[in-house]
Write a structure and sequence with these properties.
Elements (H helix, E strand, L loop, with lengths): L28 E2 L4 E5 L6 E5 L2 H5 L17 H5 L12 E7 L4 E8 L9 E7 L7 H13 L3 H16 L3 E7 L5 E8 L10 E2 L6 H9 L2 E4 L7 E4 L2 E2 L4 E2 L12 H9 L4 E9 L2 E10 L7 H47 L2 H5 L14 E6 L2 E6 L4 H12 L7 E3 L2 H4 L7 H4 L1 E6 L7 E6 L4 E6 L6 E2 L8 E2 L5 E6 L8 H28 L4 H10 L4 E4 L5 E4 L1 H6 L20 H14 L3 E6 L7 E12 L2 E11 L1 H18 L13 H23 L6 H33 L1
């Protein structure tokens, strides 16, 4: 069969061979528990409508082309105050009178298709009785904020969602790196079978859907067997394209998915996204075994709670990282002490304690350095370790390469799985074959999948036969040749240890340059190729060597650098730096400090200088290292932005003169949750992910503040309408 890339299947046209690419956001149809209107701006004329308009609202006659002002009730007046908001990312809801005869409706409104698009989509549902969830929300937020472990948080989340949303079952579902899902926690009615601990293959939720769920954070399916109601005309006259329904709350769901749910016996769902660090971390999925609708306020509250849970998850995950960082720092300190005593930095790593193994929860570790191998714990034999070094040399260089199945990466290493099924490798110099390696053995573990992940579907000849995994019987898979996977905190620890050791190796080699000037060529080469800028000077401070990475820091017309104190000219605060560098040369003192490079070219760097002694009182020379701090800077900037967002006057504050003390209270509780998360994140270990983690917390806070505002507004209007 020829391989080509046909256009992605339209909504409802997918089969199991291409459902991964179904255009679910272009559904062109809604669920029947409400009506959809597409409206032009600024004249508010109806340009698209769902075909159930007459039957649902009692309005008959041609409505396409009508202005909203001409329709009975107060829809257009109710919308008016919201039309100056952008509504591109978070829809808002208003209460209004609409239909024939007039009745109370909740109207969700948003603008589809990005900031430049024109036109509003209205989704109207008959309003339920007024509900006030504020006490429940307040209690829930307090509980979420106090959870001290991920498992506890998952358990409380399942309990809270079951209570607030009222479905038969609530599950907390987490995705792993490959997108497979695992049910971490569940609350269900006692008569239901448990899904706890089951895993589901990544193919159950297509990528397109996952991306959609990062934007649309709560989806409700009221009845899996419902007839879809088309929107007409199908093509929006405003854009000449299919209506983008990504943010619609009434959007009809993919037939493949509703079939899937029916096969599970599920009639109705509410699913909320857990977005952590900008990525879909998991879901809270609620199932009901008969049709179930929940009104706007409840959906809003579920969204708000999911944001609070996601924020707490980032705090807890970062806390685990901070713990790992602590043990790495201790290791670093011990290395510094040992070096000061006898210069043998390797013995600090292999001192018979588990300090090298513990931060990664590894069973064994090895250092490959200058042709020698040192090990601790359970590791492969010397020959194999050398072979691993060679194999790593042939791969792309990354700060920490990790696998939980070395045998799958390279079949030649399959026989090592008893000690080395899982491996993390950190390069410690630019010289081939020099690595720190950590190992984990294979574990025979049983994974319980909901259905056979390798035979995901039964495809019959008859299209009506299409049904994902007819049997939901548990499917037990023996996973062999696979170790416990490495977590993000462990990888960050590996990166940090690797960098620390790389710094020491570089310093060590620099020292060699000083000791054996006759061997200059070979050793100089190693120093010269290092990625880290380094300058080596003799006992008087005359510069002997600046490597290529150091040269790269300099501007073309940089001043001539002869002695170590001349380096001060490269920095913004050159006097201060000069004084420090003089200390190094004159008083033989180690120096440390963070400085900005002049001209703003290279950003902030960490400057380290150390005298090198051959024996007490016998000075060989000096080594100055410069390392890039721009990652740390980016973190600082993101933290500042979050801080500003936390203290900024949220629009909600203007509700103060109304009866909305409760809402302000809720907002400050959410701010507290975000604050805690920010603290944990900036204490964490992996600066490369911190900015996005912080941005995500800020985004979450903005969203929840917005949701709270909608709720407060909604409550105020609903009570005004009643009186
Ligand atoms: C969507 N599939 C989903 C969603 C879940 C699952 C949670 C998101 C629904 C939402 O957010 O409302 C899967 N649901 C599960 C699982 C459990 C559960 C595993 O409750 C376990 C208890 N689905 C398939 C296959 C395809 C498929 C083989 O199994 C095709 C490749 C498609 N799943 C599919 C599609 C959607 C989906 C297209 C999007 C539904 C939509 O939003 O329109």
């Amino acid at each position: 069969m020829a391989h080509h890339h046909p256009a992605p299947p339209a909504f409802g046209q997918a089969d199991l061979s291409n459902c991964e690419r179904e255009q679910i956001h272009l559904a062109g149809s809604i669920q029947p528990h409400g009506v959809l209107l597409g409206v032009s701006e600024p004249d508010l004329r109806v340009v698209q409508a769902s075909t159930n308009l007459a039957s649902y609202t009692g309005l008959d006659g041609e409505i396409l082309g009508c202005s909203l002002h001409e329709l009975p009730g107060d829809l257009s007046e109710s919308l008016e105050p919201h039309l100056d908001q952008d509504l591109h990312e978070i829809p808002t809801g208003v209460r209004c009178r609409f239909g024939e005869p007039l009745a109370d409706y909740d109207c969700m409104l948003h603008r589809p298709g990005g900031p430049t698009a024109k036109g509003v989509v209205l989704e109207l549902e008959r309003a339920g009785p007024p509900i006030d969830l504020s006490t429940q929300v307040e209690d829930a937020l307090e509980i979420i904020r106090r959870c001290a472990s991920l498992q506890q948080l998952a358990d409380e989340t399942a309990r809270i969602f079951k209570q607030v949303a009222g479905y038969d079952r609530a599950m907390v579902y987490r995705f792993d790196d490959e997108g497979h899902g695992e049910i971490l926690s569940e609350r269900r009615n006692p008569d239901l079978e448990s899904y706890l601990g089951q895993r589901y293959p990544a193919s159950d939720i297509p990528q397109i859907a996952r991306r959609l769920y990062e934007r649309n954070r709560v989806r409700v399916l009221v009845d899996a067997t419902h007839e879809r109601v088309p929107v007409e005309p199908r093509i929006s006259p405003l854009t000449g394209d299919d209506l983008d329904m990504s943010l619609c709350s009434l959007r009809a769901m993919s037939p493949i998915h509703t079939q899937y749910l029916q096969n599970m016996g599920v009639a109705a769902t509410l699913v909320a996204s857990l977005v952590v660090g900008g990525r879909l971390w998991g879901l809270v999925a609620c199932h009901h075994y008969s049709p179930r609708a929940v009104q706007y306020e409840t959906r809003c509250v579920c969204e708000l709670l999911a944001e609070a849970v996601a924020t707490r998850i980032s705090a807890l995950e970062s806390f685990a990282q901070a713990q790992a960082e602590l043990s790495v720092r201790r290791l670093e300190q011990r290395m510094a002490e040992v070096i000061a005593q006898d210069g043998d930095w390797q013995s600090a790593l292999f001192d018979g304690t588990r300090s090298l193994l513990q931060p990664l929860a590894a069973h064994g570790a090895a250092l490959l350095f200058e042709g020698e191998i040192r090990t601790i714990g359970e590791v492969p034999g010397t020959q194999e370790l050398r072979a691993l070094g060679g194999w790593l040399d042939g791969r792309e260089r990354v700060p920490a390469f990790a696998t939980s199945s070395l045998g799958h990466e390279e079949p030649a290493f399959e026989h090592l799985s008893a000690t080395a099924s899982g491996m993390v490798a950190a390069p410690i110099s630019s010289t081939p074959g020099e690595y720190l390696l950590w190992f984990r053995p294979a574990q025979i573990r049983t994974v319980v999948w909901g259905g056979n992940p390798f035979k995901p579907f039964v495809v019959g000849d008859d299209p009506a036969d299409l049904s994902p995994r007819r049997s939901f019987a548990k499917w037990h898979q023996q996973v062999e040749g696979t170790s416990e996977p490495w977590g993000p905190a462990e990888l960050a620890a590996a990166k940090l240890i690797g960098e620390t050791v790389a710094g020491i190796v570089l310093q060590f080699r620099s020292v060699q340059v000083l000791i054996a000037r006759d061997q200059l060529e070979t050793v100089q080469e190693q120093v010269r190729c290092s990625d880290h800028p380094v300058v080596i000077a003799d006992p008087k401070g005359q510069i002997l060597l600046g490597n290529d990475a150091f040269e790269a820091l300099l501007a073309e017309d940089h001043p001539r650098l002869r002695r170590i104190p001349d380096l001060a000219l490269l920095f913004d605060r050159s006097q201060e730096v000069g004084a420090l560098l003089n200390d190094l040369i004159e008083r033989r003192r180690s120096i440390r400090g963070e400085f900005d490079l002049a001209r703003g070219s290279g950003g902030t760097v960490l400057l380290r200088g150390d005298p090198v002694l051959a024996a007490p009182g016998r000075l060989l020379g000096h080594v100055v290292l410069v390392s890039d701090q721009s990652e740390r800077k980016a973190v600082e900037a993101a933290r500042q932005r979050l801080q500003n967002a936390l203290i900024a006057e949220h629009p909600l504050a203007t509700f103060g003169d109304r009866r909305d003390l409760t809402y302000r209270h809720l907002l400050s509780s959410l701010q507290g949750n975000a604050q805690l998360a920010a603290l944990e994140i900036t204490d964490g270990i992996d600066p490369s992910r911190m900015p996005e983690m912080l941005e995500s917390v800020r985004d979450s806070l903005d969203r929840t503040a917005g949701l709270l505002e909608h709720l407060a507004d909604h409550a105020a209007r609903a009570s005004k309408k009643r009186s």
